[in-house]
């Protein structure tokens, strides 16, 4: 299996059968997936290869100054299968209506978008061996830690050849790897203490990094133990610090819901120049961050990915477009067309769904808030939220929040005892006279960390409502 | 079952050949079709389920399970899957049978429909969506309304090496209306959803009054007050009751969590955990409910499993492996999102059975507190026994009366504390089941339903 080249690429084989159907686009994937599932630290099941090869045809038909856009996915590459898929897409295009007079798809042979690190070569060549070795390293990293154990685990590696072509002459493709790690690390309660606590990790990456496991295991065990001994949260409005781990569950959905051409089309996007945050806030969407799961040389329409400035010193700068929505506003695509992304979930086989607009990696620029401990010192009395159960942001209203799975009291400017349970939430955006995460922002830390799909320092919000027992 | 019948012989022979190499092998094949339309007054888009068929083979290696999935049912593709399984078996030759019962069920079921939906194409779906959209016409402050109408037929064929053959075709039909209200840059929405397993008759349930009520709610939400923070009496609406049942006793009673030693509920099996009025059920055989199935993906018939019987924790949900490990019987809860995803113990339709109180009695009983309405989701904590559920909106209860509308909020609490605090459950007229989905892990989403009537208890709530 190698990166797609020449006539062999799945999309090109289909595209070669679409003469006379212009304009059209074909997105295809050839996927091999391997999985190891653990119950405790014992192997429960191995899976693979899970072999999928499929494509989607998208057609664009002008109708009364608008476009009829129709798409259909299939895994049947035979001439009859392609013809049937084409007929389905054509029927949908005849009845559909999108308010744009044109859709400027990218053109040009070999438009690769340059090199972005998205392929783990060792994993690509030896997938199951690599996974088995990683599981062995993970077990070793957790060995010799009395009171801590894996309660379950799944590691899944997906190897994909993506290929894209269209009737404007684009023929491009790239190979990429994706690793999803889901584990539970349990800290056991002793006879004198409360019941066991479990730290539940969901992580996504482009590569396996066994050399990081020892450091990560320290962190997992630390969090599991703090969850075990966490006490109830306080009640009231108070200063709250949110690190990248929490922002990762909030910002992509809200930015994806409001700072896009789709939101603009529906009249809910802020106009560029609108002040939505204090001067200290600058936010990018970076599609080329090395090894980030949403990075790629090109988006799912073949437009080269780039770094986009979403919020510049508190004011909306740019919103995200795919080619279709760009056509509605006579602007260029920002390379933000992605398939299989919805409400914070991402599927590992993308050809089944037509593209929508989504951010890649949201990057919050470091501020002058200093180190984590300096930020805590500024909060004085409040809460550091390490993990929210499910923050389920509402892309329309911008509301977010949920249960505090792990947090820490801040007392006299220092991190104190762990807390667990209770709620935290609010609005991300709000009119200037209403409280929100952004208009109550007091400081942004100076050191970023990456928690897929966000790179951000911790932020200090002057006051957010906490619902607790006390 | 026309969707898969052409491949059945090849699947059968592949299983038969592999059965010579292992004590047990099974295959699940899948094919889907359907149509969905979205209409918002300007934009019209159609989406058909992909023309993708596939199969997953699972074989016992003697020490564990190995699986191979392929996206295709042609002879060459199935031969590829068979060879991959053979290689795994060569690596680990199997002699002993896998633990637990193997299904010997033979079943052939198709969703019953009063009005067949398969002929509902692009020409018919759009006028229906336009009609529904027109019911919002003239509603003040409604910025936009999106209507989505869809049907999707999921055909699955299960065969194994001990002669089970289960063929089922499940048709899920749903209409969703989302009015968005907007004022001074603030946007709020509500949802009106009608859905279930059946035919076109389900869409007859879409009513103008339901659509207008959602529009009124979206508009009112623009001026909703902040919800209370801290411990309060909480009256859960049917959808929020459902999320509570799903996240607490649903996920907590999935027996794979018992086997992994990560369910706070396991030591409580057989104990009283709530009041006499509380009964929680998972019922995959619930006719017409969104998550109805005829059999699970290991070939065991769907069934009604009582998880909590009048306050006593009586049952768990099993697949063959957990049933074998815990000395129980499979409950028809082994499910795959699709043939490319693994099988887990999963819920189907999980709900609290109705009690005897009226809504008004529960409001009076609460005296002061908050009603959580329009559930949007939740998350479980099988190890820690905590639960989170989230509601899009609610109302305050003051002096035994329903007062101000409040905005979105979350409920957080210890499940057992919550159960001990239950003071009433409303009667059958309030009972509802939703049309949702559930994940186990990051990607394994499948159709799921939760519900119940109104339920009064106490918990921590706060803006979220």
Protein model, in words:
The complex is a heterodimer of chains A (470) and B (464). Chain A has 470 residues and is an alpha+beta fold. Chain A has helices at 10-15, 79-95, 121-125, 127-142, 213-229, 244-247, 251-258, 261-265, 323-329, 372-379, and strands at residues 24-39, 42-63, 66-74, 148-166, 171-187, 197-205, 236-242, 283-286, 307-312, 315-316, 337-338, 341-342, 345-346, 356-357, 361-364, 382-388, 399-411, 414-419, 423-427, 441-444, 449-451, 454-456, 459-467. Chain A folds into two domains: 8-227, PmbA/TldD superfamily (PmbA/TldD fold); 230-470, no CATH class. Chain A is 20% helix and 37% strand. In chain A, the strands form five sheets. Chain A has a six-stranded antiparallel β-sheet with strand order 3-2-1-4-5-6. In chain A, strands 10-9-8-15-22-21 form a six-stranded mixed β-sheet. In chain A, strands 7-16-17-19-23 form a five-stranded mixed barrel. In chain A, a hairpin with a 2-residue loop joins strand 17 (399-411) and strand 18 (414-419). The longest helix of chain A has 17 residues, at 79-95. Chain B has 464 residues and is α+β, with helices and mostly antiparallel strands. Chain B contains ten helices and 25 strands. In chain B, a hairpin with a 4-residue loop joins strand 6 (142-160) and strand 7. In chain B, helix 2 packs parallel to helix 3. The longest helix of chain B has 17 residues, at 75-91. Chain B starts with a helix and ends with a strand. The model of chain B has no long low-confidence stretch (mean pLDDT 95). At the A-B interface, strand 1, strand 2, strand 3, helix 2 and strand 4 of A face strand 2, strand 4, helix 3, helix 4 and strand 8 of B.
């Amino acid at each position: 299996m190698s990166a797609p080249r020449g006539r062999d690429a799945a999309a090109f084989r289909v595209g070669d059968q679409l003469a006379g159907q212009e304009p059209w686009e074909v997105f295809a994937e050839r996927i091999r997936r391997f999985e190891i599932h653990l119950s405790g630290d014992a192997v429960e099941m191995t899976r693979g290869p899970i072999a999928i090869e499929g494509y989607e045809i998208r057609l664009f038909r002008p109708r009364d100054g608008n476009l009829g856009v129709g798409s259909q996915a299939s895994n049947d590459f035979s001439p009859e299968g392609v013809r049937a898929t084409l007929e389905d897409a054509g029927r949908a295009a005849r009845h559909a209506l999108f308010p744009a007079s044109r859709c400027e798809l990218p053109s040009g042979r070999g438009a690769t978008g340059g090199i972005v690190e998205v392929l783990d070569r060792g994993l690509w060549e030896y997938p199951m061996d690599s996974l088995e070795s990683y599981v062995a390293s993970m077990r070793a990293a957790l060995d010799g830690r009395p009171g801590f154990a894996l309660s379950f685990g799944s590691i899944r590696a997906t190897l994909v050849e993506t290929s894209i072509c269209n009737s404007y002459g684009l023929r491009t493709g790239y190979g990429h790897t994706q690793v999803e790690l889901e584990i539970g690390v349990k800290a056991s309660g002793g006879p004198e203490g409360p019941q066991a606590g479990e730290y539940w990790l969901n992580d996504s990456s482009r590569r396996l990094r066994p050399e990081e496991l020892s450091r990560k295991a320290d962190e997992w065990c630390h969090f599991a133990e703090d969850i075990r001994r966490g006490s109830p949260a306080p009640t009231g409005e108070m200063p709250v610090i949110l690190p990248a781990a929490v922002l990762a569950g909030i910002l992509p959905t809200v930015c994806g819901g409001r700072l896009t051409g789709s939101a603009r089309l529906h009249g809910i996007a802020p106009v560029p120049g609108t002040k939505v945050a204090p001067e200290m806030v600058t936010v990018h969407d970076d599609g080329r961050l090395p090894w980030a799961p949403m990075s790629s040389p090109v988006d799912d329409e073949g437009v080269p990915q780039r770094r986009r400035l979403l919020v510049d010193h508190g004011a909306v700068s740019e919103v995200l477009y795919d080619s279709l929505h760009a056509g509605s506003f006579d602007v260029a695509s920002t390379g933000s067309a992605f398939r299989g992304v919805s409400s914070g979930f991402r599927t590992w086989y993308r050809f089944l769904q037509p593209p929508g607009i989504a951010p890649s990696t949201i990057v919050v620029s470091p501020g002058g808030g200093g180190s984590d401990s300096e930020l805590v010192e500024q909060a004085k009395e409040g809460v550091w939220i390490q993990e929210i159960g499910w923050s389920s942001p509402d892309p329309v209203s911008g509301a977010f929040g949920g249960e505090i799975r792990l947090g820490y009291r801040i007392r006299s400017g220092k991190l104190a005892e762990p807390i667990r349970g209770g709620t935290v939430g609010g609005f991300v955006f709000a009119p200037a006279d209403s409280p929100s995460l952004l208009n109550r922002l007091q400081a942004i830390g100076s050191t970023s960390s990456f928690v897929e799909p966000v790179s951000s320092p911790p932020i200090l919000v002057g006051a957010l409502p906490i619902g607790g027992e006390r | 079952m026309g969707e898969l019948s052409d491949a059945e012989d090849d699947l059968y022979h592949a299983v038969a050949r592999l059965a010579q190499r292992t004590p047990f092998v099974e295959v699940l094949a899948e094919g889907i079709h359907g149509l969905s339309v979205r209409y918002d007054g300007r934009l019209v888009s159609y989406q058909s389920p992909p023309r993708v068929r596939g199969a997953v083979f699972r074989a016992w290696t003697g020490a564990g399970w190995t699986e191979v999935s392929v996206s295709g049912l042609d002879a060459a593709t199935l031969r590829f899957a068979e060879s991959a399984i053979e290689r795994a078996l060569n690596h680990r030759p199997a002699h002993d049978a896998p633990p637990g019962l193997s299904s010997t069920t033979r079943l052939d079921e198709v969703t019953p429909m009063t009005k067949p939906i398969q002929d509902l194409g692009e020409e018919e779906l759009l006028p229906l969506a336009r009609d529904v959209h027109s019911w919002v016409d003239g509603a003040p402050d409604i910025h936009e309304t999106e209507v989505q109408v869809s049907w999707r037929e999921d055909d699955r064929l299960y065969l194994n090496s001990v002669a089970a053959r289960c063929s089922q075709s499940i048709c899920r039909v749903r209409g969703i209306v989302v009015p968005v209200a907007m004022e001074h840059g603030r946007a709020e929405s509500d949802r009106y959803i009608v859905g279930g397993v059946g035919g076109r008759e389900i869409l007859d349930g879409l009513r103008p009054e339901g659509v207008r009520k959602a529009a009124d709610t979206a508009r009112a939400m623009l001026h909703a007050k902040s919800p209370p923070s801290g411990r309060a009496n909480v009256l859960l609406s049917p959808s929020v009751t459902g999320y509570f049942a799903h996240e607490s006793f649903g996920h907590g009673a999935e027996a794979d969590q018992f086997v992994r030693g990560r369910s706070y509920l396991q030591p409580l099996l057989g104990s009283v955990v709530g009041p006499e009025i509380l009964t929680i059920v998972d019922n995959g055989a619930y006719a017409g409910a969104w998550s109805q199935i005829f059999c699970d993906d290991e070939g065991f018939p769907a069934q009604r499993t009582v998880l909590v019987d009048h306050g006593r924790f009586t049952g768990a949900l099993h697949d063959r492996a957990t049933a074998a490990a815990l000395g129980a019987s499979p409950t028809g809860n082994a499910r795959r999102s699709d043939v490319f995803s693994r099988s887990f113990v999963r819920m189907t339709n999980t709900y609290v059975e109705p009690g005897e109180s009226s809504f008004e009695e529960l409001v009076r009983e609460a005296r002061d507190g908050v009603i959580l309405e329009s559930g949007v989701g939740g998350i479980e904590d099988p190890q820690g026994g905590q639960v989170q559920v989230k509601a899009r909106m609610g109302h305050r209860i003051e002096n035994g009366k329903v007062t101000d509308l409040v905005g979105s909020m979350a409920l957080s609490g210890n499940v057992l504390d919550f159960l001990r605090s239950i003071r009433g459950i409303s009667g059958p007229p309030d009972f509802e089941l939703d049309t949702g989905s559930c994940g186990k892990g990051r990607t394994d989403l499948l159709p799921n339903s939760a519900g119940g009537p109104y339920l009064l208890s106490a918990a921590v709530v706060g803006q979220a």
